[in-house]
Amino acid sequence: MNKEKFYRENEKYLKMLALHYSRNCFIKFDDLFQEGALGMLVAFNNYSKKKKDAELKKIGKTVANRFMFNYVGKEIKKEEFATVSGKSAEEAFNRNMKKLSEKEREVIEKLYLEGKTIYAISKGLKISRSTVRYRKHIAIEHLKREILNDIENLGIMLSLRGW
Asked: For the residues 75-92, what does the mean pLDDT come to?
């Protein structure tokens, strides 16, 4: 199979995937499609001689999805959404993270900021996977509560401003 044929066979999948990410993450379709196509070509270059066509197609889709997912993550980290109070989302996130216990904060940072798996975190911290899941659950509940408080405070500020 050559690159052209491989790309043409997977083009519809790339469009569908880019459309999915662009609708859910508000990122340009063209940028996402380009990242996915790049992922497909990387997969083709790395695996075309080693794998059969069916396996290559599956690997290509996985790599394209990962490229798009990583691109979305980078774009979201770049953006700062200003709130009415003038504080950025990053400031609010950091403030809320400080309210977590050290153990909860460590799990959330490793899981979401460093992109580690639950298994890798459990091995690194020398705790069970269920403990990691539990700490993640508790931390997310704390963060939800804090975010809801921020939203409530924002609503009060808006009503005071006459909005």
From this structure: 56
